[in-house]
């Protein structure tokens, strides 16, 4: 499945996440997707993005560790495994940047609403990871020209 389509699926699932654990699972799914897209672009993307794409993949990997393995609801697999390509690099990076903005907002809402200390700190770590990934995406978009959206 193309990157933009996978990102769209992730946005829809995140929007429908009804509880804190589901939001954390989607944060993990987003990090896995960033890792997969970064890795794909590092090996076959535009030459001017390869170093930053490698960093995006590494940020996604670190971010996935901050959230822990995505809580796979209903036996679902990690969505990023379905990535078949990145047809429109700028479009995919812009969409992924938007997804991470939404992930950050959802995580802040969960952190603010919880009374469970462990869940709160898990959200804070996931927010930091999402922020780092967003920074990498912004840098890649600036490198493509026109700045981050």
Structure notes:
With 149 residues, this protein is mainly alpha-helical. The protein is built from 5 helices and no strands. The protein has helices at residues 3-15, 20-44, 50-67, 89-113, 117-144. Helix 1 runs parallel beside helix 4 and helix 3 runs antiparallel to helix 5. The two termini are 24 Å apart.
Name the features.
149 residues, mainly alpha, 5 helices, 0% strand, globular
Strand content: under 5%
As a percent range, the share of helical residues equals: over 70%
- Ends: how far apart? 24 Å
Unreliable residue stretches: 70-75
Element pattern in H and E: HHHHH
Oligomer: single chain
Q: Give the CA-based shape.
A: globular
Number of DSSP strand runs: 0
Average pLDDT value? Answer: 88
Largest sheet: none
Tally of alpha and pi helices: 5
Which class do the helix and strand fractions yield?
mainly alpha
Rg of Cα set = 14 Å
Topology:
Elements: H1 3-15, H2 20-44, H3 50-67, H4 89-113, H5 117-144
Compact description:
The protein has helices at 3-15, 20-44, 50-67, 89-113, 117-144.
